[in-house]
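Need tokens for this chain, all 65 residues.
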Amino acid sequence: MVPDYSLQPTDHSVPPDGLTLESACAVMQEHIECPITACPIKLCARTLLIREGRIEPAERPKFGF
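Here are the structure tokens for all 65 residues:
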């Protein structure tokens, strides 16, 4: 099933039981337009993916698009 990217996500809260690696990857795709500073679930997903070595943080923050 292909996700529908035409609608922005409306729920930005972190689930009480946390995220798995698979769900963290999905969150990063679904919340691609959300700023990391304003979206708690994207921040949680990014933190998990960095901790597990799946992504590497940028050397400096990126502003804008």
